[in-house]
User: Which sequence fits this backbone?
């Protein structure tokens, strides 16, 4: 732990002449869960898309394992980083067919799936509790089940890094905790480096090793969640008044909002 | 137990191959002259058979059947590829303008040098070049317009209508070429011989091989542009490659058999109904179904005219296969349209 897995240096991005990200110097440490926080439109999804190279950086560079990947080919990146997008279409295919595509970067365009590919697909389906739904069509699934199917696609890629944009949206509390526990175990047991966007401050407090707070496309602050999730930050970034409380018995820290300004 | 035998798609493949071969045998046996099975066996064993029978089978019926199978396969594959990349089940190969390009080029060639009408092996080459040029134009324009997947169909239809108007204009001023050109526009296998097999063969071989190999790329595109690029697929390049491939397949087929319609619509639709959207299954199945439909239609066309001699048809004593596919295809198209519209709730 402690090694820098992903680094961005002076990373900027804009749509036309509207700056969305400005001089982002983000540090993602290997084997950690990093949570991105910020209000709607602060640039969280854009930052993930720029790191995954879905969007081209306007300025600055991105390093993965110390290597500049700003101009690396998509296929090579896809072997090392998988991303779950915030919005996914409903497609006319089965869960299995979708998850199978996760092997694309490994199997190559023309090659058949090999034994290890089928194994990876099976594992991904199993970990997301989708084995019983694998032959169902995506449009027959509930929103939460579909979200798990897209997560399974990312898992099937078997990458060291997972970029997850709001992995728990559409899910009931049970499945939210399930997914967050799954993400934790991928991190603790398989050493995957995880960067995810969460809107629930309490979940960030409970699951993050490190948090990065974005405000207007810039990094407002970053560090261990207990250090940077403070009443002042919540006031300045989210415009809410809240207290941070630690439960004396379980030692869990939660935030309790009480008013909006 | 069932798993010990073939999977669903392999059973379909086997049934279809057997049916295509059965049509082949029937094509050899029946027609204006009936040939007995024992005579046919003699020919294929290389033994002495009556020269006229050997002539009919080896020089007329066999090449014609081979062309029907190849052209059907090519149109079926072109159709399924185009339907996948445009995400539109109503698209058929002529939509990208390649067919009308072929027709116009052929007619221009006939107008400039009427001798081409008789040297029928040169005509397909002209047609093919014309079809590919028009496709390039359509690519270029739809790329300028943005999203290649959606606009390509619109621009293709537009260009096709302009070219068809030009074709009609030339035909009106050159009445004498009308008859044979019309037959070619409907699409027919009449008078197709070995030289035509040699013309279509390279297109079929290259197009079908590359088409089958690109099935997983097509599956990647089905994820949508964002996810496909996340998996390392270069979306624009892949789409262009697939469009080019379907243009080559269509141009090769159309230049030899003419603008046979609806094959590239019916084949893919039936294939997807059996095996779903997975390109690795729907591509080969669409090829086989379309080959069966065209060779079957041509068999029916050839034999129907024997059963029902139409008096005014004495100049061209055979029904064009394109008429049969249109007869099957037009109602089918309406059916698919209806289903599609109902499904979308429009
Ligand atoms: N395709 C686009 N074209 C122009 N502007 C865009 C586009 N996509 C996003 N933006 C703008 O970029 C800004 C950042 O968007 P982004 O999606 O990164 O926000 P976010 O932090 O993920 O928000 P949310 O919490 O709502 O998901 C927003 O102001 C948005 O309006
Ligand atoms: Mg977002």
Assistant:
């Amino acid at each position: 732990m402690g090694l820098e897995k992903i680094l961005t240096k002076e990373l900027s991005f804009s749509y036309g002449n509207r700056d969305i990200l400005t001089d982002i110097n983000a540090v993602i440490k290997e084997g950690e869960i990093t949570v991105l926080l910020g209000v709607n439109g602060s640039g969280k999804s854009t930052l993930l898309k720029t790191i995954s190279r879905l969007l081209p950086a306007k300025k600055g560079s991105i390093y993965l394992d110390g290597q500049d990947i700003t101009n690396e080919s998509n296929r090579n990146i896809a072997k090392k980083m998988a991303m779950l997008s915030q919005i996914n279409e409903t497609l006319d295919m089965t869960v299995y067919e979708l998850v199978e595509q996760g092997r694309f970067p490994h199997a190559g365009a023309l090659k058949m799936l090999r034994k290890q590919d089928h194994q990876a697909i099976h594992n991904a389906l199993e970990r997301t509790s989708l084995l019983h739904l694998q032959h169902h069509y995506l449009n027959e699934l509930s929103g939460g089940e579909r979200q798990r199917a897209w997560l399974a696609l990312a898992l099937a890629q078997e990458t060291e890094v997972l970029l997850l944009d709001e992995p728990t949206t559409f899910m009931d509390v049970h499945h939210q905790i399930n997914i967050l526990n799954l993400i934790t175990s991928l991190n603790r047991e398989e050493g995957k480096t995880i960067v995810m966007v969460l809107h629930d401050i309490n979940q960030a407090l409970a699951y993050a090793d490190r948090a990065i707070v974005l405000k207007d496309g810039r990094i407002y602050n970053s560090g261990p969640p207990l250090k940077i999730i403070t009443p002042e930050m919540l006031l300045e970034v989210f415009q809410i008044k809240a207290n941070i409380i630690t439960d004396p018995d379980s030692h869990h820290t939660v935030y309790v909002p009480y008013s909006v300004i | 137990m069932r798993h010990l035998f073939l999977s669903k798609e392999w059973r379909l493949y086997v049934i279809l191959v057997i049916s295509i071969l059965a049509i082949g045998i029937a094509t050899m046996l029946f027609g204006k002259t009936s040939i007995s099975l024992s005579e046919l066996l003699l020919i294929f064993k290389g033994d002495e058979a009556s020269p006229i029978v050997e002539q009919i089978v080896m020089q007329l019926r066999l090449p014609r059947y081979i062309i029907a199978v190849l052209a059907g396969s090519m149109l079926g594959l072109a159709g399924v590829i185009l339907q996948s990349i445009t995400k539109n089940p109503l698209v058929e190969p002529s939509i990208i303008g390649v067919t009308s390009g072929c027709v116009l080029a052929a007619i221009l060639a006939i107008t400039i040098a009427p001798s081409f009408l008789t040297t029928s092996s040169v005509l397909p080459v002209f047609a093919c070049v014309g079809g590919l040029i028009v496709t390039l134009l359509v690519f270029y324009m739809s790329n300028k317009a943005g999203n290649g997947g959606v606009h390509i169909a619109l621009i293709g239809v537009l260009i096709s209508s302009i070219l068809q108007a030009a074709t009609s204009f030339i035909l009106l001023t050159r009445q004498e070429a009308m008859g044979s050109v019309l037959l070619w526009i409907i699409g027919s296998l009449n008078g197709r011989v070995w030289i035509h097999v040699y013309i279509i063969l390279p297109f079929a071989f290259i197009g079908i091989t590359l088409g089958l190999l690109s099935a997983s790329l097509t599956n990647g595109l089905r994820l949508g542009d964002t996810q496909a690029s996340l998996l390392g697929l270069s979306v624009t390049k892949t789409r262009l490659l697939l469009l080019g491939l379907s243009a080559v397949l269509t141009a090769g087929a159309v230049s030899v058999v003419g603008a046979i319609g609806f094959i590239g619509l019916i084949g893919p639709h039936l294939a997807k109904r059996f095996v779903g959207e997975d390109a690795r299954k729907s591509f080969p199945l669409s090829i086989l179904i379309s080959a069966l439909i065209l060779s079957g239609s041509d068999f029916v066309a050839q034999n129907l005219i024997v059963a029902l001699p139409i008096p005014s048809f004495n100049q061209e004593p055979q029904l064009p296969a394109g008429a049969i596919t249109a007869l099957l295809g037009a109602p089918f198209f309406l059916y698919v349209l209806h289903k599609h519209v109902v499904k979308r709730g429009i």
